[in-house]
Design brief:
With 479 residues, this protein is mostly helical. It contains 17 helices and 10 strands.
Length: 479
């Protein structure tokens, strides 16, 4: 009988010049089926290990953000000296056997299974009731968030296009023999995500930023309801999450390497515990605006057409012409110094994954799309983001599609490099524009809205191992 591959720990080697194992045979963060977590101290250790999986560069600390921008048409990958990183994703050359979707799939379900295992053990633990509730709520949030990331990458179509499209298996058990799980519909995956988050929200406390807090759960609810086009609830949770907080210019210009007043969710990386070259900032340009020195890979760059959407006085216009662009094979591109490092040390940087500005933008979009739009509040929410970065910004007087286009433009300027890019295009049913002549490796200058190629394939190893998923269940482009 086949066993579902998402629960198998495998040794996978990745072909790069500095390759190490992508998945070790017995990862230190995994929880075996036989382990019984019999104390709150053991639960704490297990939860920390699960956050390690979530913040792995295979999952939500690099791959997800790279997929988002490199497949959006706004970022350009170095065509030379790229060490093989993200080439197939950028060239839209992903297949059912590609390692990128396979590794992302495995890591996501490792978070989910660990969370389920912790929940199972919490039922038998006595002690501090507040701590038990906190741990339970965190595991619900971890499970929901991982299902959400996997749905964005692997759903045949996003919720806004077809809520009945095939999505991913919903894994609610820690039993590894519970292995043959079919692809659920997109609507059913989101139903479970919302259920987990709504259960977690009143139980979870406002703990340190490197873990899920009540505010972070509220932010994920706002994201999920935005995906579902439930405008009233998206606006509601975004408003609760941002709590009318003012935005500080330093939060957008100081390099994103430490948490600040605007951070809602982030991942802790210390000076002794970080991914070095395989970190998020390593692939962007992480030195300051006045230096031509390159740290890390520095192979994710931006097209001039994207840089030109920023006004010259916009504080978010943190780009310089790519140093050593000839070395990377793409003269004319720009690098961003939005993501930098602490104390001039490669990858010494926490990773910020959710910010207050995003909540204002979710609220603005949702209010503008209500059955009876609230343009006044939408315009005011939009101004919160614009006024922080653009001196002299005034409140928009636009309404209807013109206002929505203004909000979408602001999302592009505010959130680049943070994991939205192509996923926003898919959600909004917009095409991918690769018409900038610096793009390479893929012949189409425009990928139409709702194109099948935008979804990643269900990994072939999963289909081979799962009796409930067949070749006929594969996403259309990869059949």
């Amino acid at each position: 009988m086949k066993k579902i591959y998402m629960l198998i720990v495998a040794i996978i080697m990745f072909a790069t010049s500095c390759s190490e194992e992508f998945l070790e045979q017995k990862p230190s963060n995994s929880i075996s089926e036989e382990v019984v977590l019999s104390s709150l101290d053991a639960i704490e250790i297990a939860i920390n290990g699960t956050y390690k999986y979530l913040s792995s560069y295979y999952f939500d600390a690099l791959f997800y953000q790279a997929f988002a921008d490199l497949r959006s048409g706004e970022a350009i990958l170095a065509s030379a000296n790229n060490y093989g990183w993200f080439v197939d994703a950028y060239k839209n050359n992903i297949t059912v056997s590609s390692l990128y979707p396979e590794i992302f799939w495995i890591r996501g379900y490792q978070v989910i299974v660990n969370a389920n295992k912790i929940m199972d053990n919490l039922n038998d633990i006595s002690g501090d009731v507040t701590k038990i509730k906190q741990y339970y709520a965190e595991t619900l949030a971890l499970r929901a968030y991982s299902h959400l990331l996997l749905a964005n990458v692997f759903a045949d179509k996003p919720y806004s296009v077809n809520p009945d499209a095939k999505c991913i298996p919903i894994k609610l058990s820690s039993n590894l023999s519970d292995s043959n799980i079919p692809r659920a519909k997109v609507r059913d995956v989101y139903k479970q995500i919302i259920k987990d988050l709504l259960e977690a929200e009143p139980l979870i406390g406002n703990i340190r930023t490197g873990r899920f807090s009540r505010r972070a759960v509220q932010g994920v609810l706002a994201r999920a309801y935005l995906d579902m086009e439930n405008w009233e609830k998206a606006a509601h949770w975004a408003s609760i999450c941002h709590a009318n907080q003012d935005l500080d210019t330093a939060a957008i210009t100081d390099g994103f390497y430490d948490y600040n007043s605007e951070t809602i969710l982030g991942y802790d990386f210390t000076d002794t515990d970080h991914a070095v070259y395989r970190s998020h900032p390593s692939f962007w340009y992480i030195d300051g605006p006045n230096s031509n020195y390159l740290y890390g890979y520095s192979t994710i760059m931006y097209a001039p057409s994207f840089v030109n959407i920023f006004a010259d006085n916009d504080k978010r216009k943190m780009f310089i012409p790519g140093p050593r662009a000839g070395f990377f094979g793409v003269p004319g591109t720009f690098v961003t110094y939005k993501f930098r490092h602490r104390n001039d040390n490669l990858s010494y940087a926490n990773l910020i994954r959710m910010r207050v500005a995003e909540m204002y933008l979710i609220e603005a979009e949702a209010l503008a799309k209500l059955a009876t739009p609230d343009y006044d509040r939408a315009q005011k929410a939009l101004l919160k983001v614009q006024a922080r970065s653009i001196p002299g910004a005034t409140e928009s007087t636009n309404e209807g599609q013109t206002l929505l286009n203004e909000i979408y433009l602001e999302r592009r300027k505010e959130l680049y490099g943070e994991g939205f890019g192509v996923f926003d295009l898919m959600r909004l049913q917009l095409p991918v524009d690769r018409s900038d002549n610096l793009h390479w490796g893929y012949s189409q200058t425009t990928i139409p809205a709702n194109a099948d190629i935008l979804s990643f394939p269900i990994p072939q190893v999963e289909i081979d191992a799962n009796d409930a998923i067949s070749e006929n269940d594969q996403n259309p482009f990869y059949k």
